[in-house]
C-alpha cells in the first residue's frame, strides 16, 4: 500500500520493516510538508532537517542489516519543552537559547525505539495557556480552521499531527495541554499516569502536575508512541508499574459503568458548557450506551480541588522563570504568575502537596461505583487566533477557565486521561471528550477509546490539506 500523509505510526513502521519505503524517503517528504506549511500552519519552532536526514540514513542501514525496533526510521516530532541534544529548549520563550548537551529521558527512549526526531513543535510561553501564540514565534494555526488556535500548550504537536506532517508527536500536559489541543484538532490525546513518561531532567515538572503524553490520529498510534516513550530515569521520583498500552487497544473493555460528568469542577470564575459541545459529548455517551455500557450522569466529588492546583502551577512557573536566560523578555503574565508562585511556594505549596492523598481517597471512592468518567475535554470550541494573546493576566485566567474548566483536576491527581474526538460543531470546529480513570488505568481507557474509534471511525475524517502532498511512495 502506498504511504501518504494519512499513514499512521503503525502503518509507517510496518512499511519500513517490510522494505516498502526507506526512512530517508519518508523523512524527506516529511520535511517538505513541514517547510511547505510553516508560513501558514507554523507548527515547528525547530526543524532538524540535516540531523533528521542523517538519522534516517542510519536507520536505513540498520533496517538493511535486519535490525528491527518499534519505530525504526519513523519520523516523529516532540514539543519544545523537551531536551533534544544539540538543540535549544526555548519552551515558547523569546531569545536565543543555548543548545542542550543531552536528550531528555523521553526523547532518549524514542531514539532507542528507532524514531527520527524531525523537529521541535511550538508551544506558548512556559506552556501556561490553551493557545499557541507568542512574540517568540508567532501564531500556530488550526489545520481545521486556520483562523482559530489548535489549542495549547501542545498546539504545535497537535497541528503537526492533525495536518499530516508527522504521524504522531509528544506533548506535555499540566492542565490539559495534550488533551485540549487534541480536542480542538480532532485527535486522540493521552495524558498518562504521572511518571509513566519521564520528564527528566526535571524529576517533577511544575510540582508534579505536568506529564509527557502522546498525540495521534488513532488510539493504536497514540498507544504505540506511549509504549516507546514510557520508562524512567534512575532518579525519577515517580515510577508507576509498567503497562502494555498497545496490547490494550485490541482488548474488549467489557461492560463498564460510566459516569457522564457535565458539571465543571468549582472554580473562582464562571464556566459554562456551551450547547454545541454538550450535544456532542452527550452523543458520545449515547454511543457508549449503545455499545452495552451503563452510562449515567454523575460528577466526581472534586470539592475545592482548585485550591491545590494554583500553588503547584504557579510555583512551577517560578521554577522555570528562575532558569530562564532572558527573564526581561518574558510576558508580563508570566512574571506575575512567577511572583505569585514565589509567594505560594512555602506553606501553601506544602499543604497543596499533602492534600493530594486526601483527594486520591475521596475521588478514588467514586471509582468503587464507576469504572470510567466521561466528561467534555473543553467547555467551548477553539477560539480565534489572537483572542487571548493581549489580555491582562486576570482576563486571561477568566477566559482560560471559561473555555477549559474540565481537564486540570486530573493533573492534580496524577491519574490518566484520554481525549477522543467527539465531532465537529455546526461551524466545523472540532471538540472532544475525555475518558478519565483512577491510577494506572491507561489500559482500560485505551481499550474503551479503541472501541469507540472502531464504531465512529473518526480517523477517517481529515481537514482540507494546506498544501498538495507529494506523490505517495
Automatic annotation (TrEMBL):
Domain called Amidase: residue spans: 26-446
UniProt keywords, alphabetically: Hydrolase
Classification via Gene3D superfamilies: Amidase signature (AS) domain
InterPro entries: Amidase, Amidase_CS, Amidase_dom, AS_sf
GO molecular function, one term: amidase activity
Entry's EC annotation: 3.5.1.4
PROSITE patterns the record matches: AMIDASES (PS00571)
Record-stated family: Belongs to the amidase family.
Name of this chain's protein: Amidase
Amino acid at each position: 500500500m502506498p504511504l501518504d500523509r494519512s499513514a499512521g505510526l503503525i502503518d509507517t513502521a510496518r512499511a519500513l520493516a517490510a522494505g516498502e519505503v526507506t526512512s530517508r524517503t519518508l523523512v524527506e517528504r516529511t520535511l517538505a510538508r513541514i517547510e511547505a506549511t510553516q508560513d501558514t500552519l507554523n507548527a515547528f519552532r525547530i526543524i532538524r532537517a540535516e540531523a533528521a536526514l542523517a538519522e534516517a540514513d542510519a536507520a536505513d542501514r540498520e533496517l538493511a542489516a535486519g535490525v528491527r525496533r518499534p519505530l525504526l526510521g519513523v519520523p516523529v516530532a516532540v514539543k519544545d519543552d523537551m531536551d533534544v541534544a544539540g538543540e535549544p529548549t526555548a519552551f515558547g520563550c523569546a531569545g536565543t537559547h543555548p543548545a542542550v548537551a543531552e536528550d531528555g529521558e523521553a526523547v532518549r527512549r524514542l531514539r532507542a525505539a528507532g524514531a527520527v526526531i524531525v523537529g521541535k513543535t511550538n508551544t506558548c510561553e512556559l506552556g501556561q495557556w490553551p493557545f499557541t501564540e507568542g512574540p517568540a514565534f508567532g501564531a500556530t494555526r488550526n489545520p481545521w480552521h486556520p483562523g482559530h488556535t489548535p489549542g495549547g500548550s501542545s498546539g504545535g504537536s497537535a497541528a503537526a499531527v492533525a495536518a499530516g506532517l508527522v504521524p504522531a508527536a509528544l506533548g506535555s500536559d499540566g492542565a490539559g495541554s495534550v488533551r485540549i489541543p487534541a480536542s480542538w484538532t480532532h485527535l486522540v490525546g493521552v495524558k498518562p499516569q504521572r511518571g509513566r513518561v519521564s520528564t527528566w531532567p526535571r524529576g517533577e515538572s511544575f510540582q508534579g502536575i505536568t506529564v509527557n503524553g502522546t498525540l495521534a490520529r488513532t488510539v493504536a498510534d497514540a498507544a504505540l508512541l506511549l509504549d516507546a516513550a514510557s520508562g524512567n530515569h534512575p532518579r525519577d521520583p515517580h515510577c508507576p508499574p509498567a503497562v502494555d498500552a498497545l496490547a490494550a487497544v485490541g482488548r474488549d473493555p467489557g461492560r463498564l459503568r460510566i459516569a457522564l460528568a457535565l458539571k465543571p469542577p468549582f472554580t473562582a470564575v464562571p464556566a459554562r458548557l456551551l450547547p454545541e459541545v454538550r450535544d456532542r459529548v452527550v452523543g458520545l455517551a449515547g454511543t457508549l450506551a449503545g455499545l452495552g455500557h451503563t452510562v449515567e450522569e454523575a460528577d466526581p466529588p472534586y470539592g475545592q480541588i482548585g485550591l491545590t492546583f494554583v500553588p503547584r502551577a504557579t510555583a512551577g512557573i517560578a521554577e522555570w522563570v528562575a532558569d530562564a536566560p532572558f527573564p526581561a523578555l518574558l510576558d508580563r503574565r508570566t512574571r506575575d504568575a512567577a511572583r505569585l508562585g514565589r509567594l505560594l511556594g512555602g506553606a501553601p505549596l506544602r499543604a497543596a502537596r499533602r492534600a493530594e492523598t486526601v483527594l486520591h481517597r475521596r475521588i478514588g471512592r467514586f471509582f468503587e461505583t464507576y469504572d470510567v468518567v466521561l466528561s467534555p475535554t473543553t467547555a467551548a470550541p477553539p477560539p480565534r487566533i489572537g483572542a487571548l494573546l493581549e489580555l491582562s493576566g486576570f482576563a486571561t485566567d477568566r477566559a482560560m477557565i471559561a473555555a477549559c474548566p474540565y481537564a486540570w483536576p486530573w493533573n492534580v491527581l496524577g491519574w490518566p486521561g484520554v481525549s477522543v474526538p467527539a465531532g465537529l460543531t455546526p461551524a466545523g470546529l472540532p471538540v472532544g471528550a475525555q475518558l478519565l480513570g483512577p491510577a494506572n488505568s491507561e489500559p482500560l481507557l485505551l481499550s474503551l477509546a479503541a472501541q469507540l474509534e472502531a464504531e465512529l471511525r473518526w480517523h477517517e475524517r481529515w481537514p482540507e490539506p494546506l498544501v498538495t502532498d507529494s506523490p505517495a511512495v
